[in-house]
Amino acid sequence: MSGFSNSPKLLKGGIVLIDSVTSSVRRIIALQYNPDSISRTLQVQGVGAESGDRSEALRLKGPPVETVKVEAEMDATDQLEEKNGVTTEVGLHPQLATLELIVYPTSSQLQTNNSLAQSGTLEIAPMETPLMLFIWSKQRIVPVRLTEFSITEEAFDATLNPIRAKVSLGMRVLSVNDIGFNHKGGSLFMSYLQNKEQLGQKSLGGDFSALGITGI
Predict the structure, then answer these.
(1) What does pLDDT average to over the chain?
(2) How far is CA 111 from CA 80, 105, 106, 114, 161, in A?
(3) What is the SS3 assignment for 47-116?
């Protein structure tokens, strides 16, 4: 018996797509391998520097603009060794297509808009995509918009299906400033922020002596 039978199950990061109107889950995409690192940037939304008014120096217009960058790896080696039928036939195409479709309108949406244009409709609303959630443990469930997306296919089978690839995702967290409080994404952002506040309260505070001073 293996000595690792009681090892904790390794959770995976991933993406969930939900209907922006009904909030029903459309697709769950778990990353095959968790990336070694995640890059996050928070752009402060202050007003003091813009207005030049000293009374505004400490004020915030809203939550910071947070961006997230992730590089995920895909490898079909194990599935090919197990002679998985789909992987043997088309390699990583299904997994890549699932991610790529996040930034595509559906074919039916395109056909509908084309029909409206041909019928003389003057104003055609932009096509809406599902709400995308980036999930990295239960501590980080955030609504996001995909802003950067690149794929590097690194190996192919005999029929040129990709069997190893790297996917780079750039995402912008959607706050209540972007989608409002009543939107499902807005409530998820508020839960994310409130959880961050609770985590911050668990951090032990320092004291003046650690800074080499006795007070201010």
Answers:
(1) 90
(2) 37, 10, 9, 5, 29
(3) CHHHHCCHHHCCCECCCCEEEEEEEEEEECHHHHHCCCHHHHHHCCHHHHHHHHHHHCCCHHHHHHHHHH
| Pair 145, 132: CB distance under 8 Å | yes
Please give the model's pTM, rounded to 2 decimal places.
0.85
Q: What is the pLDDT of residues 155-166, one digit of tens each?
A: 999 999 999 999
β-bridge pairing 65-75 and 131-135: unpaired
Pairing of strands 141-156, 38-43: unpaired
Listing from the earlier edge strand, what are the strands of the sheet with 38-43? 25-30, 14-18, 131-135, 141-156, 162-173, 65-75, 38-43
In this predicted model, what pLDDT tens digit does every residue of 44-92 receive, in sequence order?
988 865 556 677 778 888 999 999 999 999 999 999 999 889 999 999 9
What are the distances in angstroms from CA 66 to CA 72, 110, 141? Answer: 20, 31, 13
CB 48 within 8 A of CB 56: yes
Residue 18's CB: how many other CB atoms inside 10 A?
A: 20
Q: What residues contact residue 100 under an 8 Å CB cut-off, 6+ apart?
A: 149, 151
- Residues 164, 76 contacting (CB under 8 angstroms): yes
Nearest to 129 by CA among 177, 179, 82, 79: 179
